[in-house]
Amino acid sequence: MKRLMLLPLAACTLLSACSRAEEIGSVNTNWRLTGSDRVVIEAYDDPLVEGVTCYVSRARTGGIKGAVGLAEDPNEASIACRQVGELRFREPLRQQQEVFTERMSVIFKALHVVRTVDARRNTLVYLTYSDRIISGSAQNAVTAVPVPRSTVIPVAK
Q1: Which domain of life is it from (predicted)?
Q2: If DSSP codes are grouped into helix, strand and coil, which group holds residue 77?
């Protein structure tokens, strides 16, 4: 069962539809001689909804382990998704779908962003959370992008 949680991460790595983070800023939070801990701001463009970008802020562990990718980043993350252009749907959306995955440790922890369609309110809702192979975290954040009433969100049946 725990191995199944790695499948979305592996699929995201193999598929070109999965977005990559674009780091757009950061601040140092804990200075270290070998590399500071930081809070980074990353932008993710929704791969199926042109015109929506999600901004995720999260802690990154510095030091030697952080520099070589062996550190485990904290669970905390914040998200704000916004309409940044004309909305275009590349294909019908699933009711709920993982759209971004980013590792937070070598293999044990990942940050996820899931899109849910709120058809009644014509809104795209984005949730961010982290999980581990052994245990997840209840820490999460949510944001929403309202879609104009004149544009119907196409939902796959």
Answers
A1: Bacteria
A2: strand
